[in-house]
């Protein structure tokens, strides 16, 4: 078997495509042809060639120095005359005269194709799915499939997604498909069997780092002529590595280091120079690096200690000179991630401490000290963006020619900042996670928790490393976690998501948004929580609420689709300026099995929790003023003034628990249970008589949802989302929050109804459970959000409204 890396650049390639290298005026490559030859031979290549852009200068030097096992090649920039779309075509084993002819006609790809066929030149269309000048379309790719018969299957500078999809497309071609394409574009195919394509491979190396690691093999033959003929006859294969964002970033970095060295611009004391010497140079600079390390060690600032730990870490593993470049890249990336995390922690700690102490100067000092170090991460993000620039085109190709994967679903990453906190979003997401796992959905939930809190996570969870956490005083039940940025980017990249869903606009949600933009992945944002409305209740300072509101609006403006729990909240968001065209309803499912308590078991349960006999009102959730709890207090005071046999049970914890307890002090039938595990809440739902939830800021109302599923009628406000999951007069009641007396009157009517007609009262709970069972299916909910389907809601029945102004009418209506 003979082989060659058919796509390598030398210092004769002078015009870079990367914006950064263009900006500084660097060449595309600084690799000498002799270095290319030696590295290719070290990698076991039978033959060596250089394929510079539109020049054979480097190739001529290579062939002159090593005539026996090299051949002249070039990477030609050709153009479709109808739209000026650039295409790169590799031409092998050509002569000077042939290159001159090619250079004269390359502005017309049709003339170039005909010339290649006439001269019987071996060729390969390079990185066909890479849009060189942002004009590549599906139609252009289809034209290429008719025009040419040999393509690069693995391009070492492109990621595995591009290479795998393109090879699958080429292998999917059939005689009928090629006949259709030839007729569509009125192009004569290149050969007699155009549905069979030849495949080549090349590293597309510009920095001298990966020469010979992606290559073309021919299964038989020993001579150069045998190899070239195998390319012509479509009998070659591609092998080797694809690129990733880290390798691309370090390749660009290597070119910049070579450029700086050629201009004598290197700063011997910079981290960039230190990293360059570790990755790309031999050991003679290590003494100098050790001296730099000692100088930093003597610094007393936090910044100095972070950098010292970085130097210490790198020097500890860099002494192993047997590691290849790729292994060293992995090591330095990990070290740089730790360096970035150190500065992130310093800034976040400063924000918490220094802002609270009023020391804004120290905060800005720490931010300023961090910026130069954080700048080193920029190449990784720009490289990631570069690799996925043509994601839409790849998606269209896959859809048109390959179809869905073996799993039949897109790979979905679902990001959330809350998963085990005390709130309805966490409960809802836990249900989504379990249901997705039970149904073998192709979805992974991305969270950020410390190791000690991540032990019980489900297998379909990706836990990012938390480097900083903080629980704000005003919301002690929630802990903010900051993920390790560069390590998280690597974890997410390896998941290869095809869709991203974001449940929260916190640090994890922001990371999901960033990755969606860098990887060209469609992103849906779920509007679980109205943070702006909550802030209006929780803060007296309007500026804080306005900042939260503006940030939230910005965040959801960045997503491709906004999933909203209810239509009522769609209207609210539209009134606030959100794009209605981007909104879709978030379908819900539920799968709970409430306990079947007898009346005796219910009394025993109530006694266990010291809840007196009588009519029991239940409230559950986070005890915070944004839940309109003071309105609930007012309602209960009115009810208790009218009757002495009505209980109020408050399940939950939160920042305003102490204040609510004080407001209800002296009411003997008020019971505070504290935080109840989710599974145990089903017992409270089952044993209570009415769920009362006057919140105006909830977008859905998970507790209302669960209460009804357990057969507990609910009373909710006419503002927000819960009103849509309660059928007024049939499964509960929807009342205005401007009038607490209307609530208390309704409750008192229900107390009388239970006393005088318990069968009619019980039917309301039965209706509630049936309404939830019929209308909320997990199969539909997961199909809706994961596969983008929008099923019709199947109504239980056309519920007539229940009017209960008087006891006699109440009994007849429920019956």
TrEMBL record:
Recorded GO MF terms: glycosyltransferase activity
Domain Glycosyltransferase subfamily 4-like N-terminal residues, every copy: 423-592
Domain Glycosyl transferase family residues, every copy: 615-756
Cited SUPFAM superfamilies: PHP domain-like, UDP-Glycosyltransferase/glycogen phosphorylase
The protein's enzyme class: transferase
Keyword Hydrolase listed: no
InterPro entries, per database record: Glyco_trans_1 (IPR001296), Glyco_trans_4-like_N (IPR028098), Glycosyltransferase_grp1 (IPR050194), Pol/histidinol_Pase-like (IPR016195)
Pfam families: Glyco_transf_4 (PF13439), Glycos_transf_1 (PF00534)
Keyword vocabulary terms for this entry: Glycosyltransferase, Transferase
The protein's Enzyme Commission number: 2.4.1.-
PANTHER family to which the protein is assigned, alphabetical: SULFOQUINOVOSYL TRANSFERASE SQD2
Protein name in the entry: Glycosyl transferase, group 1 family protein
């Amino acid at each position: 078997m003979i082989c060659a890396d058919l796509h390598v650049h030398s210092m004769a390639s002078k015009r870079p495509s990367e914006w950064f290298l263009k900006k500084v005026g660097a060449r595309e490559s600084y690799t000498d042809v002799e270095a290319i030859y030696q590295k290719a031979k070290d990698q076991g290549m039978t033959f060596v060639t250089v394929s510079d852009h539109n020049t054979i200068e480097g190739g001529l030097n290579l062939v002159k120095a090593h005539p026996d096992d090299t051949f002249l090649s070039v990477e030609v920039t050709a153009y479709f005359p109808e739209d000026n779309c650039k295409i790169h075509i590799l031409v092998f084993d050509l002569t000077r005269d042939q290159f001159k002819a090619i250079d004269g006609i390359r502005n017309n790809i049709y003339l170039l194709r005909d010339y290649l066929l006439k001269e019987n030149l071996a060729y390969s269309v390079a990185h066909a799915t890479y849009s060189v000048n942002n004009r590549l379309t599906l139609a252009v790719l289809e034209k290429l499939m008719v025009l040419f018969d040999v393509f690069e299957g693995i391009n070492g500078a492109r990621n595995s997604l591009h290479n795998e999809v393109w090879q699958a497309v080429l292998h999917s071609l059939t005689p009928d498909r090629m006949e259709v394409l030839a007729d569509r574009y009125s192009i004569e195919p290149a050969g007699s069997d155009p549905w069979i394509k030849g495949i080549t491979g090349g590293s597309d190396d510009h920095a001298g780092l990966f020469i010979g690691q992606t290559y073309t093999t021919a299964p038989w033959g020993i001579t150069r002529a045998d190899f070239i003929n195998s390319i012509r006859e479509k009998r070659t294969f591609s092998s080797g590595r694809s690129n990733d964002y880290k390798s691309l970033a370090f390749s660009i970095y290597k070119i910049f280091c070579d450029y700086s060295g050629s201009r004598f611009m290197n700063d011997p004391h910079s981290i960039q120079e230190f990293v360059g010497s570790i990755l790309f140079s031999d050991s003679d600079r290590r003494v100098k690096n050790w001296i730099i390390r000692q100088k930093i060690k003597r610094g007393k600032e936090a910044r100095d200690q972070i950098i010292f730990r970085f130097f210490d870490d790198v020097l500890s593993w860099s002494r192993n000179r047997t590691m290849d470049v790729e292994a060293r890249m992995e090591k330095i990336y990990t070290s740089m991630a730790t360096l970035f995390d150190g500065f992130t922690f310093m800034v976040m700690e400063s924000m918490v401490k220094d802002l609270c102490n009023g020391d804004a100067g120290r905060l800005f000092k720490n931010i300023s000290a961090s910026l130069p170090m954080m700048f080193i991460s920029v190449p990784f993000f720009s490289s990631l963006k570069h690799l996925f620039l043509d994601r839409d085109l790849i998606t269209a190709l896959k859809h048109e020619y390959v179809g869905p994967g073996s799993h039949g679903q897109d790979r979905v990453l679902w990001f959330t900042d809350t998963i085990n906190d005390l709130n309805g979003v966490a409960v809802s997401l836990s249900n989504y996670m379990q249901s997705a796992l039970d149904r073998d959905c192709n979805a992974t939930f991305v969270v950020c928790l410390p190791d000690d809190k991540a032990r019980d996570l489900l297998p379909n969870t990706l836990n990012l490393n938390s480097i900083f956490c903080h629980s704000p005083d005003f919301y002690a039940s929630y802990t903010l976690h900051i993920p390790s940025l560069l390590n998280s980017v690597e974890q997410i990249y390896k998941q290869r998501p095809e869709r991203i869903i974001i449940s929260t606009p916190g640090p994890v949600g922001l990371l999901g948004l960033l990755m969606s933009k860098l990887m060209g992945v469609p992103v849906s944002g779920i509007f679980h929580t109205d943070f702006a409305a909550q802030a209006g209740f929780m803060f007296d300072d309007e500026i804080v609420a306005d900042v939260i509101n503006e940030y939230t609006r910005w965040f959801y403006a960045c997503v491709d689709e906004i999933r909203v729990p209810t239509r009522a909240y769609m209207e609210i968001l539209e009134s606030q300026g959100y794009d209605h065209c981007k909104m879709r309803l978030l379908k819900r499912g539920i799968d709970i099995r409430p306990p079947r308590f007898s009346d005796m078991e219910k009394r025993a349960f109530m006694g266990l929790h010291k809840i007196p006999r009588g009519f029991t009102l239940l409230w559950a959730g986070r005890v915070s003023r944004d839940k309109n709890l003071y309105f609930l207090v007012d309602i209960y005071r009115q009810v208790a003034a009218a009757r002495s046999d009505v209980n109020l049970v408050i399940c939950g914890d939160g920042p305003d628990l102490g204040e609510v307890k004080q407001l209800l002090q002296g009411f003997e039938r008020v019971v505070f249970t504290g935080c109840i595990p989710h599974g145990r809440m089903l017992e409270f739902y089952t044993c209570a008589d009415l769920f009362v939830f006057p919140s105006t800021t909830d977008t859905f109302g998970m507790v209302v949802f669960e209460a009804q599923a357990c057969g507990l009628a609910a009373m909710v406000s006419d503002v927000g989302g819960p009103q849509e999951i309660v059928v007024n007069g049939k499964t509960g009641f929807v009342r205005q929050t401007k009038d607490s007396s209307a609530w208390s009157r309704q409750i008192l009517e229900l107390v009388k109804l239970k006393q005088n007609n318990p069968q009619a009262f019980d039917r309301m709970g039965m209706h509630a459970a049936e309404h939830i069972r019929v209308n909320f299916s997990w199969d539909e909910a997961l199909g809706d959000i994961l596969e983008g389907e929008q099923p019709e809601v199947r109504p239980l029945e056309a519920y007539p409204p229940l009017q209960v102004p008087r006891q006699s009418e109440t009994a007849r209506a429920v019956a």
